[in-house]
User: Fold these one by one.
Assistant:
Number 1:
Amino acid sequence: MSNLPVFKNEKNHLYLPFMSNFYNVFAQPFGWALFRIIIGGMLVIEGWPKIVAPFAQVSFVENLGFYPGWLWSPMLAGMQFFGGMFIAAGLLTRPIALANTVMLAITLWFHFAHPYGDALLTQAGIEALNSGSEFFTANGIKRLADGGGTFLASVQLKAELASIFWTAGALLIAAFGGGYFSLDRLLKKQF
């Protein structure tokens, strides 16, 4: 095991020593900035509907046990939308990414604790589907033939995997900060 910093690539520790400068000067700084911008940008995109309707999640957050919902719903909207902007810009990166990590970890827990279920259709719905109803496309009939269980299982898996990616991404940013191309670096101060 090496005692080198994680993002330092000394030539004598690389299988391809001539790549050291490429990794140190280009790949890692730009790769980290791109990763930070993608995570922050996606938080902005996902946060926009919540900013437009900041009280839309009041009952949802109260059902999770966060009272009062009228306080937590707009706070979460702001953290996701404006926090995403700050993460993308690399400003106050660590504390904002940490706050978003907590929020995203709760989202991950929610997806595991409250799965989508095993059916979209009741038995009557499956019978209507099988009767050749003109309300369903051929692809819709295929996806709902088992009542939607297979479709919901794939949606559940995607929700869980997306939440794992988001949570881990925000946690990495909280751990390593904004990186070389960040406003934090220009301010010469970091958390």
Number 2:
Amino acid sequence: MKRSALVLSLLLATGAVQAHDDDNGHHVSCNVDSKYALDTYRNAFVLTQEDGKPARISFGGGKLFIDGREAPLTPADQQRMREFEGELRQLLPEMQKITIEAIDIAFTALTEVARGLSSNPDKSVAKLKRSQALALRELNSQPSWMFGRDADDDAVAAIIDPIVSDFVPEITGSAVTMAMKAVFAGEEERQAMEARMQKMGDALDSKIDARAKALEPQAEAMCGRLRRMDAIDNALDYRLPSGKPIELLHVDVKETTNAP
């Protein structure tokens, strides 16, 4: 089963859309799974899998094709497929927009950490900016990343994880060095280090919190759309030649309430 993380906070691609977190600590997340990779052909959507049957599912305009043959759909199922297609067409640009914003928020956070902890902030920040540009180019080249091509693949994590893995040791080393210096430093130098840390924390609060909060209603709407798509998928009367339901995707909704 391919598993995709709809990312709201990029540190990093954890598998959940952070849809809502209200004043009472109530939190909703949506995990989406699909067996299929998604492509488009003209005005139709095409779902494929390398192992398993059907190998290819395509749909558009209320019609459904299974491995090249049109499926006999009832009028009700034709309407369901039109609704599913409509939701998917709206989902893809929404998903692209929110993920790009989440990536930008994540890199903003990493940049402030680099400024606060790196032994060579200018070099680290420049490196992060290059990495961010590369990440966005890769993401824009695969707008339907929600449906990965490899088992257990997460396209966003595949783009971001190497960047973080490369960045963390550098910052960790600088942080350890700074901590050692603080142990043996005089009072004036120690206060300067503390001021540097405070500045980093303030910058993170001012640049990250408001933007992350602004993503919440967008994520909530996207989570709702995914749930509607899952409900439409589950309502289809059509069965595959094997007798099994088609199951284009599965959405797992989790609700938790933080303890006071």
